[in-house]
Amino acid sequence: MSAPTIVDVLGRKLNLTNLDKVLYPATGFTKGEVIDYYVRIAPALLPHLAGRPLTMKRYPGGVDQEFFFEKNAPKHRPDWVKTAPIWSEGNNRNVNYLLANDLPTLVWIANLASIELHPSLSLATDISTPTMIVFDLDPGPPANIVQCAQVGLWLREVFDHFGLKSFPKTSGSKGLQIYIPLNTKTSYEQTKPFAHALARLLEQEHPDLVVSDMKKAIRTNKVFVDWSQNDQHKTTISVYALRAREHPTVSTPVTWEEVEAALKKKDAGRLVFEAKDVLARVEKMGDLFESVQKLKQKLPELSGLGGGPSSAGSAREQEKNSKVVSASGVRPNAKQGAKLMGKAEKTKSGKTEFGKSEFAKTRKTTSKSVAQKRRAL
């Protein structure tokens, strides 16, 4: 075991250990390279982590060894690492979640071999209010991300008709994830049933490809539209986070044009990105997910699909919503729509300067407007 390396990260002293340890045996990608990646991607990544309760997924022996999730902040943390107490119903106590608000904290987390970073969909200051909706498209073999691309494009059509912007990213594993920023007052009691209902509608319209039930037995060669991530007690892999796969792949924001191209060419490789690829993309394209943190959108009312006496909203609104969804290729009849909405679930050595130059260098690129860095979605 090599001696710790003392580093200075924006004025904070850290002891980094086992930097030469290989965490990705298939490629030789080391712990030092994991830390280096997180330092260099930090200007794009940190805005998506700041203020959000974070669950670490740690791989001390490497990606081919045992791992564990860690929600409660380690007691041996530096006193400058921020935490947020969040009540846990299951544990009947507060859990002190880490807040990865700054670069020193991110480096300290990476040094714990927390390869994967899983933040909440809410800010710690308002834990019951999600700032976004996420649809996790998970392919059942032999389906892959190409089939996920098709389902993602169907989802985009629905949101386009509602006037909502949606943003795709790879999971960094097998699938694709679609984010709809809200950043307005809502609750999981609204977003989760909405996501569930839409997943069911897609399943009804495209039964040969889409399932909304997580039973693995029915997911062969189909895409599971996982709506259940929209829950206060669940987390989703962060944008720009590494994944514990054979190669150091990353959950990467992509353009809809890239999704369309992957589907057209039937080429899953077009939507696979490793750490080095992502750094180059951010340098060239900026943060394609910047709007997810800023764009304000309101969740539309879908209760009009039911057509029954309990449906909310005016008759005109109900007719409009039904036509919109029908035009998107999702066409339940009134009775089925009411049933679907009714079933939607409701819930509640030496000293080393490390990181300053790379942080400042990359900040210049990622601070530019996304509109100047890529084509419009």
CATH class of the largest domain: Alpha Beta
Oligomer: single chain
Number of structural units classed as domains: 2
Tertiary shape: globular
Mean pLDDT: 84
Rg: 21 Å
How many β-strand stretches?
A: 15
**Total of helices:** 11
Write up this protein.
- The protein has 377 residues and is an alpha+beta fold.
- The chain is 34% helix and 19% strand.
- The protein has helices at residues 31-49, 103-111, 145-161, 188-205, 256-265, 275-285, 290-294, 315-327, 334-343, 356-366, 370-373; strands at 5-9, 12-16, 22-24, 29-30, 53-58, 68-70, 83-88, 93-99, 114-119, 132-139, 167-170, 176-181, 210-211, 223-226, 351-353.
- Helix 1 (31-49) packs across helix 2 and helix 4 (188-205) packs across helix 9 (334-343).
Short description:
This protein has helices at residues 31-49, 103-111, 145-161, 188-205, 256-265, 275-285, 290-294, 315-327, 334-343, 356-366, 370-373; strands at residues 5-9, 12-16, 22-24, 29-30, 53-58, 68-70, 83-88, 93-99, 114-119, 132-139, 167-170, 176-181, 210-211, 223-226, 351-353.
List keywords for this structure.
alpha+beta; 5-stranded antiparallel sheet; DNA primase, PRIM domain; Alpha-Beta Plaits; disordered C terminus; 377 residues; 2 domains
